[in-house]
Amino acid sequence: MNDKWILIIGIPLVGIIIPMIFNRFDFTFLMSEGYRNTIMSLFTTIAIWLGIRKIVIFLWDKYPWERFPVKHLTYEIIMVTIYTMLIGGLSYIVAYYTHFVELDPDMAIGISVAITLLITYLITCIHEAWFFYTQWNVSLVKAQALEKENIQSQYETLKSQVNPHFLFNTLNTLTTLIEENPKAAVDYVGKTSDFLRSILSMKDKEVITLEEEMKIIRTFYYLQKERFGDNLNLEVQLTPENLAGSIPPLSLQMLVENAIKHNIISSGNPLSITISNHTQNSIRVTNNLQKKKNENLSNGIGLQNIRKRYHYLSEKTIEISETADKFEVILPLLKGE
After folding, report:
1. Which of 121, 107, 135 is nearest to 19 (CA)?
2. What are the C-alpha distances in Å from 201 to residues 50, 152, 169, 204?
3. How far is Cα 6 from Cα 131, in angstroms, rounded to an integer?
4. What angle do CA 206, 207, 208 make, to 5 degrees?
5. CA–CA separation, 110 vs 115, rounded Å?
């Protein structure tokens, strides 16, 4: 128990108050021969306080409150009372036979015992309260550590979902491309391999700069243009200050990928994606909305993944808004690595 200040302050305080009570706050007496009462009181207080402290620690170890509340309280009252009476009796014997202090003949023994026990129970309550606080603080630290470990585990799971999510959509794109243009599909496989290599190099990073993410976006956009041609357009409007900010890896890539996956892209309905500044600490990703007929089958894994990763990394959250003709996501920029 880290209770040294309770001992340093409590023992002298109680040791001085007791003789003042027994001598009816006669300061003249205490400043003359009454100093012996104060000395005797201090030694008695030390013996009682340290003994009670040992009793409290023993009972918390033997009968913890959360498991044995009745036993803990019962044994505590019995042990504290017996110990106090024992120390009090020894103090009385020492005073009586050594005449180190003058016993007050007007002080009834019952009142003396009652005052001593009240002070003793007060000391016990102080230590019990401090022990409760200490245990609560330890439990809180353990709970926070477990929560952090749990969140870290969840975050690792989230990061592991990124590559499979991309691969699933890439294979769908490749399947379609093979049917339409086998030669282009061969080139697409080679470029996809280079793209995956750059993604894997970031798998152990919690955040990357927006500039690094934009390099991935440009490569990803190039791959998608192989299939969609002029029907897909990407516009970038970012300042150097925002490019220096950081985001979770592949956050933008997943948003662009989702826009392509969930919207109709054709010569009559081209898809336009814009990545631009929103504030000095956030960026905006927008696309015109032209949902596919089976859009209701979407499970929203991409957006959930991004939202949870932001929740792990900071208190900042992403903002999502949708109108009849536009879908928008605002990504906060995080501090660097």
Report:
1. 107
2. 61, 20, 20, 8
3. 12
4. 135
5. 9
Least confident of 44-48, 64-68, 110-114, 123-127: 110-114
pLDDT tens, 73-95? 888 889 888 888 888 778 777 77
| Amino acid at the residue 336 | G
Model confidence over 157-210: pLDDT tens digits?
555 555 565 677 677 777 877 877 788 788 778 888 877 787 777 767 788 899
State phi, psi for 36 to the nearest 5 degrees: -70, -35
CATH number (domain holding residue 253):
3.30.565.10
| Number of residues assigned to the chain | 337
Rounded Cα–Cα distance for residues 139 and 43 (Å): 36
- The CA distance from 46 to 48, in Å, is 6
Residue spans of alpha helices (H) in 63-201: 69-98, 109-180, 182-200
Sheet holding 282-288, edge to edge: 232-237, 271-279, 282-288, 326-332, 319-322
The tally of domains found in the chain comes to 2
Domain membership of residue 41 as a residue range: 4-144
Q: Helix, strand, or coil here: 108?
A: coil
CA distance 236 to 276: 6
Alpha carbon 247 to its chain centroid, in Å, reads 21
Residue 239 lies in a domain: yes
More confident site: 266 or 39 = 266
Please report whether residue 168 resides in a domain: no
Tell me the two tokens of residue 150: 């749990």
Q: For 14-41, what is each residue's pLDDT tens digit?
A: 666 666 655 555 555 555 555 666 677 7
How far does CA 26 lie from the centroid of its chain? 55
